[in-house]
Structure formats: structure tokens, C-alpha cells
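In the previous lecture we treated proteins in isolation. Real proteins rarely work alone, and many bind small molecules. This record shows how such a complex is specified: first the sequence, then the SMILES for zinc ion.
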Amino acid sequence: MFCPRCGSDDEELIEGICKSCFIKEAKIVGMDDDLKITICAHCNSILNGIKWEDSELSDEELVSFAVMENLRAMEHVEDLEISVDILTVRGSNYECLVHAEGKLLGTMVVEEYKVNVKIVKNVCPDCSKFASGYFESVIQIRADNRFPTPEELRVVDEIVRTKLGNLSLKNRMAYVSDVAMLKEGVDYYVGSYKAAKKVAETIKDSLGGVMQESPRLVGRDKSRGKDLYRIWISIRMPDFQRGDFVEYEDHKAEVMSFDGKKIGLKNLESGDSLSVMWRDYGKIKVIARKHDVKTTSVTSKTPTSIQILHPDSYQPVDIDINDEISKLMIGNNVKVLEVEGILYILSKDQD
Ligand SMILES: [Zn+2]
Ligand SMILES: [Zn+2]
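The predicted 3D structure, ligand included, written as C-alpha cells:
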């Protein structure tokens, strides 16, 4: 057989022509010379086919990456090396020079191509949800029989900001689309339910209270055949503060502390400590406030009782002794609380 291009008949034919004609005509790489990349103008994620993917690349890196992705090495090519240089940038158009080197049937071949890449800015579905105020969940900050205190609201705000900030590195939907100040508390509208739940748990761990979720059906995703819910997560902080007084089962007690898990109480009569889980919060009733505490003094003492003056009437009152108050001496000032006509000694006054 002879080569139909040059007539030579001393070489084996490749795809119907001789090797030197084949090398002259073949290309080592194939590519489109006009490319388009779609990225989200807000979060920089990139559209790959029909899927949006996170991207940390700069526009220049994206352009080089897109060119490389689009290149195909042709058959019989070995040791291919490619470099991409951006020659000019006009608006969102990048003119690139592709330099390709490789061996074609053992012969070194060098080729250069110009490729134009256009970056199209669009808005990814997550960002467009954000822009339209979309939310999956509402965190409701409430307090029993009162408005949350400024300090509580400050802590909540801080947690929402830092926790969502961290979560948003991995979850584009971890955003607050709205904050509503209501007469009973504050509502945070959150893009992602998962993120909202994590934030709410952190708030509860820090401030205590009772957390409750109530899903509401808002529609149906026909394409996936799934009901769509929005989930309201309420955190109800307690009626009481540290230093207030409550009744729990048959105990009258002072609130000593509370955290995300339990409430620490001190029995007024015996001075014993007890803790109550938040799930039993409903059984706790406030009976007096911190500011109801008064000061009086010890007027006499026997092995079984301590006598103090009633803080309002100045009448002597005898109180059964317990470990907590047994060290009191005549003349000591003490803090007392009156509940339903009964006086309780709380502690020795510090002064
Ligand atoms: Zn030939
Ligand atoms: Zn986006």
C-alpha cells in the first residue's frame, strides 16, 4: 500500500496515510474554542451540568480549570503537557492561550490554541431562596409570664450569630432571613431546619428552659412526592431567675442555679439540695421573688429552735433548728422569707 497523500510506500499506514503525513495532519488535543462557565454571583458556587457545587476558586483559576476540563487528548498521544495562560480579560470574557506538547507516535509535537471563556453570573437556588426570604424553620425565644430579659436576648443574639456563622461554612442555608420582635419574644427565621435546630440546642444549653418543636405543613413538593414542612422551634425560658422561690411537689425551695439540663433547688425548711429536670418544669410554681427577701435578727436560741423577730411586725417567732441555721448566734442578722404566713430563715446575712 502507498500513502494517498504523498505517494510514499516505504511506511506502514496509520488510519490510511503514512506516519509523516499523519503527524503533519493530526492534532494532539481537541477542544471547543468558546467556553462558558456559570457561577453564582453571591456564593461563588459553580454550575456543573445541572448541579451547583461549592467552589473556593478565583475567577482566573476557574477559567484555567474550565479550559483543562474541556481538553481531550487525541489518540496515539503520549507525555502530554498542557499550560493555560490568560492573555486578556475584557469584562467577563477571558482570552486564553493553550500550550500543548506531547509525543505523537514518538515524534514531539507542539501546538497552541486560543480559547475564549465567558463567565456567566447567575444565582444558585440556595442564594435565590435566601434572596426571596425562604426559611425552613423559626426559632421562637420566649419566657414564661414575662418578656425575655435584655441579657437573655443578648446571649441569644450572640449564639445565633456565631453558631450560624460557623454552620454557614458548610451549609449555604444556615442564614437568618428575618428577625421579628414581638410582644411575647423574638423570632429568628432560619433558612435551614438542621442549622436552626443546632442553634436552638445551643441556646437551651446556655440559658435553660423548655424546647419544643411544632411542624406545620406548608405544601407539597410534587417532583419528589414529599410533603413540605416548616418547623417552629420554641425555647421557653423559665418564669423564675436565680434567687427566686418555688414550690415543687411538697418542697418550698430557693432556685440556686440552672443550666441546659436541670434546675438546682434548696429546700427552705431543711436546707437540702435537690435537682429537677427541665421535663418536670411544669410542676414548678413560683411562690416568691428574690426581692421579697427581708432581713431581721436572732433574738434567742435553744437546742431545738431559733427565735427571730418578724421583719414587719417585730413579734418574736420560733423556728425549728436545722444544720443550715444551727450555727446562728443571738444578735446575728439573717435573711428571711415569708410564704403563706410562715417565716423561713435563708442564711446568715453577709453584713
Ligand atoms: Zn504520506
Ligand atoms: Zn449561591
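Summary for your notes: Residues 40, 42-43, 45, 124, 126-127 surround zinc ion (ligand 2) (CB under 6 Å). The helical segments are 19-25, 59-70, 125-131, 150-167, 193-207.
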